[in-house]
Amino acid sequence: MPEPVVLARAAGGYEARPFEGQGALLCAPAGGYAAPALRAALADAGATVLADMPGDARQQIGIVVMDATGCRAPGDYRALYDAFHPIVRRIARNGRVLLCAPLVEAGGDPVQAAVARGIEGFARSLGKELGRKGVCVNTAYVAADAVDRLAGVVRFFCGKQATYVSGQAVRVTARVAAPQSGAAAQVLAGKMALVTGGARGIGKAIVERLSQEGARVICLDVAGAADELRATCAQFGAVPLTLDITASGAPEQLADFLRSQGGGLDILVHNAGVTRDRTLSNMRPQDWDLVVNINFAAIAAIDSTLLAAGLLRDQGRIVYLSSISGVAGNFGQTNYAATKAALIGYAAAQAPLLAPRGICVNAIAPGFIETAMTAKLPFFTREVGSRLNALMQAGQPRDAAELVAFLSTPGASGISGETVRVCGQGMMGA
Question: Does the pLDDT of residue 192 top 90, yes or no?
Answer without folding.
Answer: yes
